[in-house]
């Protein structure tokens, strides 16, 4: 995953089954993951935007609750 430039969460977002405990690296698999990453770029960007919006709402909610106290 690392050689393909993907994180665990990105792999989950792309619905790819990967054995994260396995340490062996095969060039064929790395190339396949890179291809999947390119094809799923839009899906990854949407997931990042969604996460950022969620964090922003969470921070605003926390700030609002602190003002009430």
Report on the structure:
With about 70 residues, the chain is mostly helical. The model has no long low-confidence stretch (mean pLDDT about 85).
| Percentage of residues assigned to helices | 55-70%
CA-atom Rg in angstroms: 17 Å
| Basic shape | elongated
In this structure, how is the largest beta sheet organized?
none
In N-to-C order, the SSE pattern is HHH
Count the E strands: 0
Beta-sheet strand percentage?
A: under 5%
Question: Care to give the gist of this entry?
Answer:
With 69 residues, this protein is an all-alpha fold.
Question: What are the salient characteristics of this protein?
Answer:
elongated; mainly alpha; 0% strand; 3 helices; 69 residues
Write the layout of secondary structure elements.
Layout lengths: L7 H6 L13 H13 L1 H28 L1
